[in-house]
Write a structure and sequence with these properties.
Elements lengths: L15 H23 L58 H8 L2 H14 L7 E9 L5 E8 L4 H11 L12 E9 L4
Antiparallel strand pairs: 1-2, 1-3
Length: about 190
């Protein structure tokens, strides 16, 4: 048999010191967090405020004139009745197709594309063809414009009519010229 030890028996604390240690650590941690939140933040070198984007950054590449609403209200004005000619004016001038293509493939094509893309923001499924019928005056300016086609969007058609009136062509030989210019409009993927 084993004889008893000469040492006194060990006392058991059953974890009360561990719990006290845990409470002490939590108290110190909580106190530290509270002091960190109430401290004034150290001043850092202030960064300059970001500069807001300027209007020049968003200026469209092609300038499309706005519709003119006319002069401010000046009271009553006599309105003359506009009479349309019963028969369309006959145009017997000539302008080479290459000259017309040369003008259309420049800024006018970009203007038409801009008219389409503005509307495409509201209707991303908008696509189709447009036929722009132009009457080019003897001076080379556009006298009359009509737009039709499968695109069927009044806002695009109105914008195209407005920009087409600003186009300049070479002077036709022998008077005015009528021509039809097709455009196919599809969204870019």
């Amino acid at each position: 048999m084993v004889q008893g030890s000469s040492l006194p028996p060990l006392k058991t604390n059953k974890g009360k010191y561990g719990i006290l240690l845990l409470i002490l650590l939590l108290t110190i941690g909580g106190f530290w967090l509270c002091t960190q939140r109430t401290k004034a933040p150290e001043s850092k070198a202030e960064l300059p405020a970001p500069v807001p984007p300027t209007r020049e950054q968003f200026t469209p590449e092609i300038d499309i004139p706005e519709e003119d609403a006319g002069e401010p209200n000046q009271g009553e004005v006599d309105v003359a009745e506009r009479k349309r000619p019963r028969e369309p004016v006959e145009c017997s001038g000539s302008l080479e197709a290459a000259q017309i293509r040369g003008v259309i493939n420049g800024p006018p094509r970009k203007q038409v594309q801009t008219c389409y893309e503005r509307r495409l923001k509201d209707n991303n499924l908008l696509q189709g063809q447009m036929m722009v019928l132009l009457t080019i005056a003897p001076s080379g300016s556009v006298r009359n414009v009509s737009v039709s086609g499968s695109l069927r969007d009044a806002q695009v058609y109105s914008c195209v009519r407005r920009v087409a009136r600003t186009w300049k062509f070479p002077r036709p030989e022998g008077g005015c010229v009528r021509t039809a210019v097709p455009f196919t409009m599809t969204p870019k993927l």
